[in-house]
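Recall that a protein's primary structure is simply its ordered list of amino acids. Everything else, from secondary elements to tertiary packing, is in principle encoded there. The following example makes that idea concrete.
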Amino acid sequence: MMFEEDLPRRPVQGGGPGGFTPAALADWSEETLRAYVEVLKAEIGRAEEAIAKRAAQRAAADAFFRKP
C-alpha cells in the first residue's frame, strides 16, 4: 500500500494544468511503465478526494447560507 508521502513529487513547471509535464516514456521498461501507471492512479485518487472534499464544503456552505 502506498502512502501519500511515498509518491514522487514533481516540481511545478510548465506543461499542463497544475504544471504537470508528461514523462518521456520511450526508453522505459514495461515494469517501470506499470509502476508509473500505479503512481499516476494514486495521484488521480488524491485529486478526486480533494475534489470531493471541496464539493462537500461548498454544499455545506450553500445549505448554511440558503434563504429559508
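The two ends are 47 Å apart (CA to CA). The chain is about 55% helix and 0% strand.
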